[in-house]
Amino acid sequence: MDNLNTPEVVLSVRNMIKDFPIGQSSSKNSLMRAVNDVSFDLCKGEALAIVGESGSGKSTGARVLSRIYEKDGGDIIFKGQPLAEYVDEHGSLEYARQVQMIFQDPFGSLNPVHSIYHHIARPLIIHKRGDKKVIEKLVYELLELVGLFPAVETASKFPHELSGGQRQRVAIARALAVDPEVILADEPISMLDVSVRLGILNLMADLKDKHGISFMYITHDIATARYFAEKTAVMYVGHMVEWGNSDKVTQTPQHPYTQLLLSAVPEAGKSGRRELGAKKGEIPMWKPDTKGCPFAARCPRAIEACADTFPSITEIAADHFIRCHNI
Amino acid sequence: MNVSSLNTAKSKAPLLEINNLCVDYVSPHGIARAVNNVSLTIAPGETLGIAGESGCGKSTLAFAITRLHKAPALISNGEIIYNGRDILKMTDKELRAFRWNDVSIVFQSAMNSLNPVITIGEQLTDVIAAHKQISPKEAVAKAKELLEVVGLHGDRLKSFPHQLSGGMRQRVVIAIALALEPKLIIMDEPTTALDVVVEREILNELYDLKEQFGFSILFISHDLSLMGEIADRIGVMYAGNLIEIGDAKTVFTNPSHPYTKGLIASFPSIHGPKERLYGIPGDPVNLLKLPTGCNFQARCVDCMEICTKDDPILAELSVGYQAACHKL
Ligand SMILES: Nc1ncnc2c1ncn2[C@@H]1O[C@H](COP(=O)(O)OP(=O)(O)OP(=O)(O)O)[C@@H](O)[C@H]1O
Ligand SMILES: Nc1ncnc2c1ncn2[C@@H]1O[C@H](COP(=O)(O)OP(=O)(O)OP(=O)(O)O)[C@@H](O)[C@H]1O
Ligand code: SF4
Ligand SMILES: [Mg+2]
Ligand SMILES: [Mg+2]
Q1: How many CB atoms lie within 10 A of CB B79?
Q2: Alpha-carbon distance A62 to B76, whole Å?
Q3: Helix axes B136-149, B120-131, angle to 10 degrees
Q4: Start-to-end Cα distance in chain A
Q5: Which ligand is nearest to the CA of B55?
Q6: For the whole model, what pTM was predicted?
Q7: Chain B residue with minimal CA distance to A150?
Q8: Which site among B26, B108, B270, B300 would you substitute to test the A interface, given the most A Cβ atoms closer than 10 Å to its Cβ?
Q9: Per residue in B204-234, pLDDT tens?
Q10: What is the largest CA-CA distance in chain A?
Q11: Contacts with A, B 150-209, CB within 8 Å
């Protein structure tokens, strides 16, 4: 996503690769490539939405960026410095503070034996944000910021006493607690109901626009991707197949997979079976030596090259890119 | 009005009939009524959607229907009649048989309910083998078939849960639910973790299976557009109350309750103009501090004096269509 007058790039990812062993074997030829050749720039105060197939490597990508997983190839540069240089105790703590992750699953990300107060106070204490009084005040402010009223009462509860949506708000408050520069939000609102979703999206938009926080926003809801994020990337089987300006990607999709994705979006009033414009073909498991286009088996537009050559990147319009042989 | 549609769904005896159901959570902070006096029916072969605020009691309702609710939840009133029998009065043995033969549930956090140390294949074949008199080989073939129904490759039988993405695990859980060939499937946010293409494939599959087996579905979701597509009728809950229920099309295109109106107006549009939306003003209510009168009053743009005094009751606005609002 190179641009002439690019705003400040906070996080830069180049040709990122992540492999996993298949089953329990660890031999080289039984690796699957969950993320392949992924590159993007995350700019200050901007959001990049990642949409796409379930299992396409969205969460894995975010987990590599948050250092839960080690990358198997490519470069990650945070504020001009390769990730590898954030190593010593101070460096890795600093990276962990500045790049926060909100997980897909609010059930698993909270510890059942700790109160909500503990969850929010802990990062504040670790990052030495003040004495007991200051921290107490911050905890209640954060809970109110994410719409958990009354804050004092919510703070005394335990995760199992909250509904799914309420738990996700706690996770967001916890990420905000340490003043991060980047928030990697893995489906942060998918379990909230529509009215609350907008509140959280608008809250994230304010954090982005007014406080300059950058977001990677992983979602299945393409309408919210367009609503919230300046840029959108579409993933399929570990690859970015289309990306760029959110309006261009969602209004004039050019890659056959993006077109399929948009045609499947639910619309009330259109009930009954809706045939999809793609072959029911197999979703491949990508391996380090797999050839061709990841979408070839299902693609209605496939040509000969698709079966054996990995498509290269084409800029089809300003700030609009696809990886496809048949443009 | 289409007479034949009236004759099909509505004249049949309901498969499930819930009357005045109340479910309370008892805690040191007080008693929170998560399901308050809810009555509804589901006809054979019908899909009933339940929508509403996070925390409004949808999952609690789903748990209560199968009596899988756990303390501190307590069913304090009502009856749940399945095929003429009150589930709340069943003996443990009857209840087990009911859960085993009649109903399948896909819970909200189901993708985390898979056993982490057993392969997907074993978990599926265990369920199938325990349920049907078939050989282990046939069970494996059936398991493969079910995985394919939910769009997973048969090779995934060998995978362990942690080797699958969230969405893939969710599909495994849906496959397990289908394995039991139930008459009623309760699905609590079944496709929330999935991308829309897989969601569409699973919906298409559900439409086909429903036609083939004729089961009913209680479909809980936040996604009103999805609900408008799959459900025959939609019920909307707010703070434990059912506040509007009727045919899906009317609920979606011409809702009566101000809360439903607000919900439907809070969808960012995928194609339309891009504008900042505000959803529904205010904050979710605290079940422990419900106001006198209508629970929605503090957030309601149409609030009147009577709303702060009396509870609105669910009243019939037209045949089979009900809403609870003083303005109506
Ligand atoms: N720890 C792991 N070990 C082995 N394989 C893994 C592991 N984590 C993920 N995978 C595999 O990597 C691929 C990408 O998974 P990931 O969770 O990143 O998908 P996703 O795009 O986030 O999907 P969803 O939308 O369903 O959340 C999947 O094929 C998955 O099976
Ligand atoms: N174990 C519990 N103890 C006390 N209160 C509880 C407990 N479980 C749930 N509640 C409360 O009961 C209410 C209903 O919860 P429920 O999980 O049914 O909501 P929901 O409608 O399914 O929400 P969501 O859409 O977020 O899943 C919530 O306000 C919640 O705080
Ligand atoms: S490269 Fe070929 S298979 Fe891939 S999307 Fe384009 S036309 Fe389809
Ligand atoms: Mg994911
Ligand atoms: Mg729920």
Answers
A1: 15
A2: 45
A3: 120
A4: 19
A5: 2
A6: 0.78
A7: B286
A8: B270
A9: 877 877 887 789 999 998 778 888 889 999 9
A10: 68
A11: 151, 153, 155, 158-159, 163-168, 171, 189, 192-201, 204, 207-208
pLDDT band at A20 (very low <50, low <70, confident <90, very high): very high
Average pLDDT per run of 10 along chain B, which is 328 residues long?
A: 43 88 91 94 95 87 90 92 93 88 81 84 86 85 86 87 80 84 90 77 80 89 85 94 95 92 85 81 80 93 93 93 94
- How far apart CA B50 and CA A242 sit, in angstroms, is 35
Q: Give the angle B168-B173-B176 at the CA atoms, nearest 5°.
A: 130
Domains and CATH numbers, chain B: 3-92+184-197+215-323 (3.40.50.300)
**Assigned token pair, A128:** 């030495």
- SS3 letters for chain A? CCCCCCCCEEEEEEEEEEEEECCCCCCHHHEEEEEEEEEEEEECCCEEEEEECCCCCHHHHHHHHCCCCCCCEEEEEECCEEHHHCCCHHHHHHHHHHEEEECCCCCCCCCCCCCHHHHHHHHHHHCCCCCHHHHHHHHHHHHHHCCCCCHHHHHCCCHHHCCHHHHHHHHHHHHHCCCCCEEEEECCCCCCCHHHHHHHHHHHHHHHHHHCCEEEEECCCHHHHHHHCCEEEEEECCEEEEEEEHHHHHHCCCCHHHHHHHHCCCCCCCCCCCCCCCCCCCCCCCCCCCCCCCCHHHCCCCCHHHHHCCCCEEEEECCEEEECCCC
Specify the 3-state DSSP secondary structure of B37.
strand
| CA separation for the pair B163, A283 (Å, rounded) | 16
Sheet holding B241-247, edge to edge: B103-106, B184-188, B216-220, B47-52, B233-238, B241-247, B321-323, B315-318
Tell me the three state secondary structure of residue B33. Answer: strand
At A86, list the tokens.
Answer: 């954030």
Among candidate residues B245, B253, B238, B261, the one with its CA nearest the CA of residue B311 = B238
According to DSSP, the residues that pair with B218 across neighbouring strands are B48, B186
User: What does the block give as tokens for B5?
Assistant: 């549609």
Q: What is the pLDDT of residues A141-157, one digit of tens each?
A: 999 887 788 899 999 99
Q: ipTM above 0.90?
A: no
Question: Mean pLDDT, to the nearest integer, of A127-133?
Answer: 88
Nearest-neighbour CA in chain B from A128: distance (Å): 31
Residues 6+ apart with CB under 8 A from A12: A40, A41, A42, A75, A76, A77, A78
Q: Which two tokens stand for residue A149?
A: 């009223």
